[in-house]
Amino acid sequence: MSSEKEEQPSMEIDDSDNVLDLTSCQLHTLDAIELPPTLIELDLTANRLSELDSRIAQLSALKKLSLRQNLIDDSAVEPLSRWDALSDLEELILRDNKLAKVPDTAIFSKLLVFDVSFNEITSLQGLSKASSTLKELYVSKNEVNKIMEIEHLHDLQILELGSNRLRVMENMENFTKLDELWLGRNRIKVVNLCGLTCIKKISLQSNRLTSMKGFEDCVALEELYLSHNGISKMEGLSALVNLRVLDVSNNKLTSVDDIQTLTKLEDLWLNDNQIESLQAITEAVTGSKEKLTTIYLENNPCAKSADYVAVLRQIFPNVEQIDSNLFA
């Protein structure tokens, strides 16, 4: 007969009783778990929890709470908004649950990271209550159709709204500290970045763009991902002199243009387009000829010749990868 101790789920708790990691313990409740009052981090990722243990409400030292990949719905998470002892919480992860709306986070006045990705949320309504201290907001893989109620988040550095139903880029004028914007897999047709001059990474992959215009003011941009759109012309890129990664694969390009000034370009993804001339690529990438280490060109007319890889290696002396071919 197994002892009670043997039936306890495996867990990791550090010597100071500050961190409790119960990841992948398949717990349905926390009834058999001791929750030390000194906990700073509580990780309940990948369990079977459908409600919150009321003892969590007493963990006044808690800074990080992860309920990722559980069975938490709106009614189950609702008590959290009344647990005043948790007001100093800095990181709240509710990713991959059964939420239909954004939970009320008004009491968390020091919140830095908030993640409600992979739920069934249809609107950002309720985020107006989120603390203006927020630096990272993740709402990917939901059903959101409008960017709203987040204008007050002036300190936001990362905004993830990929895999939703957005059609318009809007209400982002105040995000002057934004470093990363992830809007892939939406329904956006026009770029509108509202003059975000400090942003460093932008993803608009798998949208409905037909033009590259709209990035001209993003002079600090280092990475730009625009694959799987309907773009037929490269334009508006010449001012992006800090760009290191440019992905315009799977579009409708027939030529490579407006990147001669990009002297820091390291990765260039042009595969699955309609580019005819290797010579034109050589001229277009003159500014980063020595810097370029990765180039993808497969599934273009110019990549049909048997020696095109050899030709590219001559053109770009420091190239380390051409398509799937790696070079020492």
Automatic annotation (TrEMBL):
Localization terms from the record: Nucleus
Superkingdom of source: Eukaryota
SMART domains documented for this protein: LRR_SD22, LRR_TYP
Ranges in a coiled coil: none
Pfam families linked to this entry: LRR_4 (PF12799)
UniProt KW keywords: Leucine-rich repeat, Nucleus, Repeat
Family, as annotated: Belongs to the SDS22 family.
Name of protein: Protein phosphatase 1 regulatory subunit 7
Naturally occurring in which organism (per UniProt): Brassica campestris
High-level lineage: Eukaryota, Viridiplantae, Streptophyta, Embryophyta, Tracheophyta
